[in-house]
Design goal:
Elements lengths: L4 H5 L9 H8 L2 E6 L4 E3 L7 E7 L2 E7 L3 E8 L4 E2 L13 E4 L3 E7 H10 L1 H29 L22
């Protein structure tokens, strides 16, 4: 088995993968620790790795014109940080910073992509799992947008129709 197999075995993201898939992935895994306040990556920078969070908290953020840094989502133990390494152009779509000291398993993106090219079953499995992460992040972003945008003012009720004028005497 690869040196990182034990690092991956208890991770929810890889739960249900075969031993050989975990063994292959483990060859591209290592432990990582981020102190509170450490920036893992910035939006637009090259994306070449991803993390499976063991302990701690990370914030996914975006720099919005006129608003500055806005937290999109907070991630904790059992979550995955990073999917941009898997899809061209391999650049981060958001930024991320450690909210508190965070312990994670870091995986090398280009190495894992190469494994996926060599083994289509592994590639399919990772694509399926990463797309689930992307869909979940889109849902969180949607809920945040909904909460941030004020409800439209209710339309005033329509004016009642004018009273019919009395018939003029004949």
């Amino acid at each position: 088995m690869g040196h990182g197999y034990g690092l991956l075995a208890g991770q929810p993201f890889v739960a249900g993968m075969t031993d050989w898939q975990l063994d292959w992935l483990s060859r591209h895994a290592r432990r990582a620790v981020f102190p509170a306040g450490a920036r893992l990556f910035v939006e637009g920078a090259p994306a070449d790795r991803f993390w499976l969070v063991d302990r701690g908290m990370l914030e996914v953020d975006a720099d919005l014109p006129g608003r500055g840094r806005v937290v999109i989502e907070t991630l904790g133990p059992g979550t995955v940080l990073g999917w941009s390494w898997f899809f061209p152009p391999y650049r981060w779509n958001f930024g991320a910073v450690a909210r508190q000291t965070t312990y994670a398993v870091e995986l090398d993106g280009p190495g894992v992509r190469e494994l996926c090219q060599r083994d289509p079953l592994l590639g399919f499995e990772l694509t399926h799992r990463l797309l689930r992460v992307v869909v979940d992040r889109l849902q969180v972003t949607r809920h945040r947008l909904h909460a941030a945008i004020p409800e439209p003012s209710p339309e005033p009720p329509p004016e009642p129709p004018p009273e019919p004028s009395p018939d003029p005497p004949s």
